[in-house]
């Protein structure tokens, strides 16, 4: 006998029939087609009796959201992820109080020829700089003193010697104009030029040596390559490897154009160029792979639907859902950034899922009956209605749990996903079915038969789809053991996942050979950023990889300078510190800065020696006077390393390190923080910071931590919601918990696979794994709900399970294959981030599908045996042993 469920809540009353309300004629007619509730049927009938009004209303809403899309803006910076932190506060302090330029970015230009240090090459260097000054596009982005090169130092040294300075000038001293420098070099002989080259590159100045290759020998007058650094004003906008304002991008490309007019070889490297190349490479990849993905989706939908009109309706629904979601973002003022990359994917996957279930259940309802299009469509919608509502409620509320995040973009991510999921329900629960009824009825009135078979119910696919049922019936323990082993492996792999992130993942390598056969409009451009970065890492210092330690206290105190000296020495010993051609680390702080000035200024040298009463190289007396004379002898070098207030007091100092490009931001951050912690104490406060090293790494880790927390919270919320909902609708909270298990399993498998394939778990890949929850919940609910419906309609557990895995499972197969395959095609892209995106998306969907159709049937059988109705539990216990079948049902295994 069928089991009765308590009817004590409104949701239960709407979707689950009681014995009194059930129409037995409908049971006879529809029983094998989904077992929908008569209350749900009446509700659907009422709605679709006014379907033309529904269509008009929803199309008007779509038009409104379409307007909202025009307001949508892109956001590629990480500023929104930054929360209040000590490191950010100290970086602001440094930018406000030290000589370091605030709101700037550095462009590095490499000059290559037989000898970049000879007189002609140095003159060419100054001519190139002058040409940059004369180019309006470039000049309007330059700061007051924007360029540093060996040519500037040599010309300035020669000019100052002519003035009888008597001392070798430091490169930080006020420079003559470019025209004066050029005239000076032109007036010098080759031998005079060599003399000054040897003098300024004798090894005492790290800044100049950092402009030459690591293999350069200090004092040598021969080199085949050197760097010019050019500082540009960003006008307060963030500049990073993947985001830069148009003015900076245009200026750096103009630099390239100007360089082409000079005889030497030039390499221009800056974040404007890398940001433009990242955008271009993504666009080029999508232009090539996007059509392939679309063709794949259409091909799979063609196989599943076998009807062009249903395909067109489904695609229309998907586009409408995206319009609603993106339009909402525009109207709400939410900018579309990288973190939202998973939103369209999730919505496309859910939309395809909703569409296939609505269409296929309608086809099932019409199969073998004389139902009209309207009757079959509403019957199918009533049958799948509760599943769609459950998916929407659990997934939407699950993602809304992100609103508790301290990061606004994460809050917005959860809100936008929730809005999109609700939009999918309204579009595929109302608009698309209403349109289908109107169109199909119109065609059938003109003699065109619109009957189609449901996917997975017939043909060769039916035995394949029954795999989950057979495993649940014949080898449930084996299934559980295999699942336990796979999940344990996934958990172990997930624990080993690397969490590093690099913008290099967004940069294309050399374009594949096969792209050369593409038509000219589709052929991608040449990409140079990756090779250039590798070249700089091997040859020069990466100026942007700067990390620093802010030392706050009383710099005039003897202990302060001793601690600063210790920190500077320990920083220089770090493995992540880059080295200059002398072999010394690219580190400077109070002691090294004063030593460098003392080496070129006799007066300050004497003051420095007199202040060192112990002979250990660390001044320990009259420190205020020492600093005063340091500022007098070399004001810019002093202001770059020691903060002097407007009233002449000293309150802090800093140590600056250039990181080695072979190390990640995380590694650089970890080591510089270790040094800061070693000197941090009561007398001195030491804080490690740095925009594109420490701060970026901290933000990335904060995002990752929040993403992981959000995933766990979402899983918990989904589990609780399903438990409550199934307690109401099925009288069994345990059924909701069982439904959650496949989602958790799929998530662990995804993490394990990422570990095996070397994909790191960072903020971007972490957001993509949210697909596992969003689609996994949908797949699991569809299977559980269909089984629950079928179980109360039949006197055989196995018949119920068979109908579930063939009917609903077939629809899930079409949905999963379409979405996973379509996005999986992105693995053919030549941008690593797109490859990872496509791969993670595909495996997330595939694992969610497999967990739902292969593992969940076994879990449902165990649930039925221990928590289900007595008659079903007895049947499983008895029929598992003798493999009995229900009357009138042949076991065609």
Q: How confident is the prediction overall: mean pLDDT?
A: 83
Which spans of ≥5 residues are poorly predicted at pLDDT below 50?
1-36, 165-173, 880-893
**% residues in beta strands:** 5-15%
So how many helices? 34
Q: Characterize the biggest β-sheet.
A: 5 strands, antiparallel
The first-to-last residue Cα distance is 25 Å
The quaternary structure here is: single chain
Query: How many domain modules?
Result: 3
Can you tell me about this structure?
With 893 residues, the chain is α+β, with helices and mostly antiparallel strands. It has 3 domains: 10-70 and 277-497 and 698-882, no CATH class; 102-269, no CATH class; 554-683, no CATH class. The chain has 34 helices and 9 strands. The strands form 2 sheets. Strands 5, 6, 7, 8 and 9 form a 5-stranded antiparallel β-sheet that branches. Helix 8 (150-162) packs across helix 9. The longest helix is centred in the C-terminal third of the chain and has 39 residues, at 691-729. The protein is elongated and about 105 Å long. The two termini are 25 Å apart.
């Amino acid at each position: 006998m069928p089991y009765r469920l308590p009817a004590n809540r409104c949701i239960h009353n709407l979707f689950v029939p009681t014995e009194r309300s059930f129409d037995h004629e409908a049971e006879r007619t529809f029983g094998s087609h989904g077992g929908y509730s008569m209350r749900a049927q009446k509700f659907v009938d009422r709605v679709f009796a006014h379907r033309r009004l529904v269509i008009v209303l929803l199309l008007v809403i779509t038009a409104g959201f379409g307007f909202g899309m025009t307001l949508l803006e892109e956001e590629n910076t990480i500023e929104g992820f930054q929360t209040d932190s000590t490191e950010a506060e100290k970086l602001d302090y440094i930018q406000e109080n030290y000589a370091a330029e605030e709101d700037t970015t550095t462009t590095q230009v490499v000059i290559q020829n037989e000898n970049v240090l000879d007189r002609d090459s140095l003159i060419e260097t100054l001519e190139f700089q002058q040409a940059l000054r004369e180019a309006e596009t470039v000049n309007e982005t330059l700061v007051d003193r924007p360029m540093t090169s060996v040519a500037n130092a040599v010309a300035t040294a020669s000019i100052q010697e002519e003035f009888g300075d008597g001392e070798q000038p430091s490169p930080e001293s006020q420079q003559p104009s470019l025209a004066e420098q050029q005239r000076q070099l032109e007036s010098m002989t080759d031998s005079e030029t060599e003399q000054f080259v040897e003098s300024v590159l004798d090894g005492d100045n790290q800044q100049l040596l950092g402009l030459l290759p690591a293999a350069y020998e200090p004092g040598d007058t021969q080199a085949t390559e050197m760097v010019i650094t050019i500082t540009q004003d960003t006008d307060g906008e963030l500049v990073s490897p993947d985001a830069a304002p148009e003015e900076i991008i245009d200026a750096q490309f103009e630099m390239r154009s100007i360089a082409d007019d000079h005889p030497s070889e030039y390499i221009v490297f800056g974040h404007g160029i890398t940001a433009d190349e990242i955008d271009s490479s993504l666009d080029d990849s999508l232009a090539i792979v996007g059509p392939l993905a679309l063709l794949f989706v259409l091909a799979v939908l063609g196989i599943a639907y076998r009807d062009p009109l249903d395909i067109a309706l489904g695609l229309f629904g998907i586009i409408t859902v995206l319009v609603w979601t993106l339009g909402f973002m525009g109207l709400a003022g939410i900018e579309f950034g990288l973190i939202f990359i998973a939103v369209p994917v999730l919505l496309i996957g859910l939309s395809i899922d909703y569409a296939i279930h609505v269409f296929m259940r309608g086809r099932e309802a019409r199969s073998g009956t004389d139902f009209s299009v309207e009757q079959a469509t509403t019957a199918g919608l009533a049958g799948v209605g509760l599943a769609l509502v459950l998916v929407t409620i659990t997934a939407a509320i699950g993602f809304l749990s992100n609103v508790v995040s301290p990061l606004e973009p994460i809050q917005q991510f959860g809100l936008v996903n929730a809005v999109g999921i609700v939009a999918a329900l309204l579009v595929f629960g109302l608009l698309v079915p209403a349109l289908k009824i109107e169109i199909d009825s119109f065609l059938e009135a003109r003699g065109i038969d619109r009957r189609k078979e449901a996917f997975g119910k017939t043909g060769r696919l039916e035995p394949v789809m029954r795999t989950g049922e057979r495993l649940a019936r014949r080898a449930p323990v084996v299934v559980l053991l295999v699942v336990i082993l796979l999940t344990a492996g996934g958990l172990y792999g997930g624990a080993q996942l690397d969490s590093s992130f690099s913008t290099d993942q967004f940069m294309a390598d050399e374009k594949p050979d096969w792209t050369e056969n593409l038509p000219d409009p589709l052929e991608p451009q040449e990409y140079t950023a990756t090779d250039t970065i590798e070249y700089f890492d091997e040859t020069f210092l990466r100026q942007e990889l700067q990390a620093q330690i802010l030392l706050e206290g009383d710099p005039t105190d003897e202990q302060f300078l001793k601690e600063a000296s210790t920190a500077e020495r320990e920083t220089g010993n770090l493995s992540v510190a880059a080295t200059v051609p002398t072999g010394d680390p690219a580190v400077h702080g109070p002691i090294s800065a004063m030593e460098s000035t003392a080496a070129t200024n006799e007066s300050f040298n004497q003051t420095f020696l007199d202040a060192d009463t112990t002979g250990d190289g660390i001044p320990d007396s009259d420190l205020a006077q020492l600093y005063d004379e340091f500022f007098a002898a070399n004001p810019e070098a002093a202001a770059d390393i020691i903060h002097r207030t407007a009233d002449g007091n000293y309150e802090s100092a800093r140590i600056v390190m250039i990181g080695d490009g072979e190390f990640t931001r995380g590694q650089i951050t970890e080591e510089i923080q270790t040094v800061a912690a070693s000197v941090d104490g009561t007398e001195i406060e030491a804080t490690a910071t740095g925009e594109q090293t420490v701060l970026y790494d901290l933000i990335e880790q904060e995002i990752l931590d929040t993403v992981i927390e959000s995933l766990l919270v979402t899983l918990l919320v989904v589990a609780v919601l399903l438990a409550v909902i199934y307690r109401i609708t099925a009288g069994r909270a345990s059924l909701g918990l069982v439904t959650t298990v496949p989602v958790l399993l799929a998530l662990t498998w995804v993490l394990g696979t990422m570990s095996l394939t070397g994909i790191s778990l960072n903020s971007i890949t972490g957001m993509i794994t949210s697909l596992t929850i969003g689609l996994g919940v949908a797949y699991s609910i569809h299977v559980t709900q269909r089984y629950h419906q079928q179980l109360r309609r039949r006197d055989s557990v196995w018949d119920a399970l068979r109908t579930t895995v063939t009917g609903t499972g077939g629809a899930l197969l079409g949905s999963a294959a379409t979405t996973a395959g379509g996005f999986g095609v992105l693995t053919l892209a030549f941008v690593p981030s797109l490859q990872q995106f496509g791969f993670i998306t595909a495996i997330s969907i595939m694992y969610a599908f497999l967990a739902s159709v292969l593992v969940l049937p076994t879990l449902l059988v165990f649930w039925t045996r221990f928590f289900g109705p007595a008659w079903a539990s007895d049947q499983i216990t008895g029929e598992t042993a003798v493999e009995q079948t229900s009357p009138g049902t042949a076991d065609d295994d």
